[in-house]
Specification:
- The protein is mainly α and 227 residues long.
- It contains six helices and no strands.
Length: 227
């Protein structure tokens, strides 16, 4: 590994020297060294990006599970209040009032679950699209270096070799930036932005309490109704 690093450094230093003239054989040596480094970097970057997809989906599944647990706990509080009202002495049949309250509570919960599931699906889709965009950036580098390699292979004179020698440095530096950028895009989407948006899409307890408070007021009005 140390030997390869030395060769890479030497190749880049040699290629960076615009005053040096190189022949096609020397160009091949320089390109072979740099191409190997680019391919290793590309493979590692693409693998790292692809490996974010599964944790991304796990985070979304965990968010769904947390929502379900939070909603179950919040629902239980309202159910307990309905049961308490039901057990109070009323002197008349209040089954219709209780049934209406339970139906309304199910409706509120169903709408809330649907709303949050749509949000989770959107968040996951957008994060996966960004990761796929990063994968595309990383994978497109293979086409670039293969195209450049064909130019190296077709080079037959010192003038051509010297021109490509200078281009190699620019190509290498840009590819390294592109790979770093792709990793940044993927990490931002799958680890940072995703987590923030999933937290924001969780159960709004104040909103739920406000909605169910109205429900409890209605059931109380129903049972207190004079026939």
């Amino acid at each position: 590994m140390f030997k390869f690093v030395v060769l890479l450094s030497a190749a880049l230093a040699f290629a960076a020297s615009a005053s040096l003239r190189v022949n096609p054989d020397e160009l091949h040596v320089i390109w072979d060294t740099i191409e190997k480094d680019i391919r290793v970097r590309q493979q590692e970057a693409e693998l790292e990006i692809r490996n974010l997809l599964e944790p991304l989906r796990i985070l979304v599944d965990d968010a769904r599970e947390k929502l379900a647990n939070d909603l179950q706990e919040a629902n239980a509080v309202i159910q307990d209040e309905i049961r308490r009202i039901e057990q109070e002495p009323h002197g008349r049949d209040i089954a219709r009032c209780i049934q209406q309250a339970e139906e309304e509570l199910r409706r509120v919960d169903d709408e809330l679950v649907q709303e949050h599931n749509e949000a989770f699906e959107r968040i996951q889709r957008e994060a996966e699209e960004e990761v796929q965009r990063a994968i595309q950036i990383a994978s497109s580098i293979i086409d670039e270096i293969e195209e450049f390699g064909r130019r190296v292979e077709s080079c037959r004179d010192v003038e051509c070799a010297s021109e490509l020698d200078v281009e190699i440095v620019t190509l290498y530096e840009r590819i390294v930036r592109d790979l770093d950028g792709a990793l940044e895009i993927a990490n931002e989407a799958a680890l940072i932005k995703l987590g923030l948006e999933l937290d924001q899409a969780q159960l709004d307890h104040e909103r739920y309490e406000e909605g169910t408070r109205h429900l409890l007021e209605e059931v109380r009005a129903c049972v207190d109704e004079r026939v």
